[in-house]
Amino acid sequence: MIRSKFSVACSLATALIFSVPIAAKADVKDYEFQLVQNEMKKGEAVVVVRLVNKRTKAPVPNAVIFARRIDMAPDGMAAMAEKIEELPSTTPGEYRFKTTLSMQGRWQLSLGAKVQGETGSVESKLIVKALP
Ligand SMILES: [Cu+2]
Fold it and tell me: 111 CA distance to ligand 1 centroid (A)?
C-alpha cells in the first residue's frame, strides 16, 4: 500500500521533473513537522510528531533529528526546559519523544532534522498544551 503510493508519487515526481524542471525541484521548505496530539496531561509524556511533505501529504520516514528542545517559552518561561529523548519510531514518518511536561500550560517543542536526499534542514516549533 505504502510502496505503491510511493511509486505513484515517484512517477508523478519524475513526470514533473521532465516537464517543469525548475518548479519541480524539491525543497527542504516542503517539509514540516505536525503534532499528532497537541494536548496531553501534564507529567511524563510521549510527544508524537509526524514529518510530512506538504506537496504530496506523504509521511517522511528516516529523517535524522539532530536538535530537540522542549521549554515553556509560549508561557513566558523560556528558561523552563525539560529533558527530551527520542524513542524508536513505531510508524513510518512518525517520531516519538519522551519528556516530562512538569507544569500545566503551553510547551514549545523545537526540532531540527535532516531529510534523506535534501540539502538544508527542517526546523519546526510546535506547541503542546499540558492539561491538569
Ligand atoms: Cu513553567
Answer: 20
